[in-house]
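Kindly inspect this chain:
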Amino acid sequence: STFYTEADVADGVPEANLAAAREDGRTEDEGWRVRADGSRFWADVVITALRDDDGALEGYAKVTRDATERRAFERELVRERDDLADELAEVFERVSDGVFGLDDEWRFTYVNERAADLIDVDPAAARGEVLWDLFPAAVGTTFEEQYRRAMSEQGPVSFEEYYPPLETWFDVTAYPSETGLSVYF
């Protein structure tokens, strides 16, 4: 209990860790620990039960690593990821084009509001649906030909095409990736 915070000692964390090591042979834990000078550090701890040849418990081996820098780095990565996700969401909100995403099996993974209005679909209902099932009239058209070309050549394609069921001309750019296709129109 020497290295644990007062709160952890009060909550029985040291005893629980020893019990887990005794029962399972070893246990791992992460949390705040206390140095001899009273300062705190984030620790990665492994406690292993030591047994004699007959299996009787003789004691424990404990390895405590200072993981303060790693934890700070991980927290910074999470913060940066969340910031990027927020920024990307803002970008998609500002895009005036219709945008939809397809996976490599032609299933919708994303439909922005503008796309939903232009192609008359509910974004939530479209997710997971196959493009060709929702738009069977697109099969055999320039839309299918160009989307398949973009995926097979792994290069962007741009084209203009009229889609009779919606009585609309579309100016389309499709950007492929290994996992699917992003379509802007």
Q: What stands out?
A: Helices lie at 6-10, 13-24, 68-94, 113-119, 123-126, 131-134, 142-153. The mean pLDDT is 94.
